[in-house]
């Protein structure tokens, strides 16, 4: 996943980028202007030196042409090459030229007057070295401006983002049950102030929502448990009636089991409705709950002409509410039995995982990634699409990992890993 830098870093980086861009444009502008001025000055020097020598030559035919570290002058009759003049310069027409002689760049001015050919050469080597030094100064200045812009960006970001950081800290430490008031009477009417007021309004709505959910959970707990307890008590009384036929006794037993399952499901849902896991009084005996779940579905397996076997490899005790663990195990075992006809279902409990395997109809490849979605029902499913989504919620809450491996017509293996 792409890593995102802090807002302070991004503000400083923006300032540094802007400083670098402006410095670069400024340096390029200065460099171009300097180069243009330098060329103009060399052209002006050539013209003045040429005019000056021709004037001196007109006054004194014996005047020698200029010869310095940067300038070389030559004069000879038209059609006759001057003594010592480079071969690349001899054939140049009148006017200004730029040539390279022995690797050295020159600007050359050529003019003819009174039958004589005047040539002045100006070496650009020293000027190019000065321009290179000046370019190094410009690069150093641009880097310095970039560093100063970055430092200024960090300093400014620290002051600009401090209110946002404080707001984030207050929000992260806020309690949904008793949220603090983030705004003050002297709160500025700027973007940060508006954001703070928006958080205050949201916390108010969130607190009201939490209170409604808590009241609903408490009312549901009371209103559901009472009739379930009455149903279970009535079923127990009916089960002790000796006048019941075998079919009637089976129906009463089913009512009793359904009431017990509903009671366990209610407890599990109420536990999931809490924001945090409630501390358990003692570790859950997983072996007992898994054995109870297997025994519970033996009848259903027999009705589908399937075998249901349990293998306990280790004694497992987990810090989890028994109701939550039972919900997970019951759903896995029930799904395996319900989708296996005249086959075999095996439950293996290891120290770190529970594996429920079957030889049933399996799951289609396009459905395997969606079975944990709420209300999703496969083509062969007869349930409501809640069981496996509830299993996934409990696993996520407890830090467990649930994996399904299946192929159509080849059975399914569900692995519940307690230690990830």
Shape: elongated
Mean pLDDT rating: 81
C-alpha termini separation:
22 Å
**SS-based class:** alpha+beta
Helix content: 40-55%
Q: Largest beta sheet, briefly?
A: 5 strands, mixed
Beta-strand fraction estimate: 15-25%
What is the spatial order of strands in the main beta sheet? 6-8-9-11-10
- Uncertain segments of ≥5 residues (pLDDT<50)? none
Element pattern in H and E:
HEHEEEHHHEHHEEHEEHEE
The value of Rg in angstroms is 46 Å
Helical stretch count? Answer: 9
The count of β-strands is: 11
Question: In words, what does this structure look like?
Answer:
- This protein is α+β, with helices and mostly antiparallel strands and 420 residues long.
- Among the domains are: 7-146, no CATH class; 280-417, Heat Shock Protein 90 (2-Layer Sandwich), CATH 3.30.565.10.
- 54% of the residues lie in helices and 16% in strands.
- The protein is built from nine helices and eleven strands.
- It has helices spanning 7-59, 87-90, 125-172, 191-239, 246-272, 286-296, 298-303, 322-338, 387-398; strands at 71-77, 95-101, 104-113, 116-123, 284-285, 307-312, 317-318, 344-349, 353-358, 401-406, 412-417.
- The strands form three sheets. Strands 6-8-9-11-10 form a five-stranded mixed β-sheet.
- A hairpin with a 2-residue loop joins β2 (95-101) and β3.
- α4 packs antiparallel against α5.
- The protein is elongated, with a radius of gyration of 46 Å.
- The chain starts with 6 loop residues before the first helix and ends with a strand.
- The mean pLDDT is 81.
């Amino acid at each position: 996943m792409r890593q995102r830098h802090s807002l302070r870093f991004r503000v400083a980086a923006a300032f540094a980028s802007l400083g670098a861009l402006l410095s670069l444009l400024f340096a390029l502008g200065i460099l171009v202007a300097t180069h243009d001025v330098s060329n103009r000055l060399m052209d002006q020097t050539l013209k003045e030196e040429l005019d000056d020598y021709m004037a001196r030559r007109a006054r004194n035919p014996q005047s020698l042409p200029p010869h310095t570290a940067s300038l070389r002058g030559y004069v000879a009759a038209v059609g006759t090459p001057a003594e010592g003049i480079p071969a690349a310069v001899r054939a140049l027409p009148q006017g200004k030229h730029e040539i390279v002689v022995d690797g050295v760049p020159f600007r050359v001015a050529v003019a003819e007057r009174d039958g004589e050919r005047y040539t002045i050469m100006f070496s650009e080597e020293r000027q190019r070295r000065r321009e290179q030094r000046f370019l190094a100064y410009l690069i150093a200045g641009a880097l310095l401006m970039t560093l100063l812009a970055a430092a200024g960006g960090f300093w400014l970001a620290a002051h600009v983002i401090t209110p946002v950081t404080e707001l984030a800290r207050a929000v992260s430490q806020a309690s949904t049950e008793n949220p603090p008031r983030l705004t003050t009477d002297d709160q500025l009417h700027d973007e940060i102030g508006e954001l703070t007021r928006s958080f205050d309004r949201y916390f108010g709505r969130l607190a009201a929502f939490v209170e409604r959910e808590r009241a609903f959970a408490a009312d549901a707990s009371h209103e559901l448990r009472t009739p379930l307890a009455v149903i279970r008590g009535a079923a127990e009384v009916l089960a002790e009636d000796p006048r019941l036929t075998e079919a009637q006794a089976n129906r009463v037993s089913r009512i009793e089991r359904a009431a017990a399952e509903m009671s366990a499901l209610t407890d599990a849902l109420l536990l999931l409705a809490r924001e945090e896991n409630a501390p358990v009084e003692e570790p859950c005996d997983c072996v007992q709950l898994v054995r109870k779940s297997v025994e519970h579905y033996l009848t259903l397996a027999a009705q589908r002409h399937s075998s249901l076997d349990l293998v306990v490899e280790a004694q497992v005790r987990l810090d989890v509410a028994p109701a939550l663990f039972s919900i997970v195990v019951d759903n896995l075992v029930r799904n395996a039995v319900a989708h296996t006809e005249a086959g075999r279902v095996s439950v293996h409990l290891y120290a770190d995982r529970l594996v429920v395997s079957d030889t049933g109809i399996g799951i289609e490849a396009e459905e395997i990634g969606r079975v944990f979605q709420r209300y999703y029902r496969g083509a062969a499913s007869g349930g409501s699409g809640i069981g496996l989504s509830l299993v996934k919620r409990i696993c996520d809450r407890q830090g467990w990992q649930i994996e399904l491996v299946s192929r159509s017509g080849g059975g399914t293996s569900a692995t519940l890993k307690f230690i990830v």
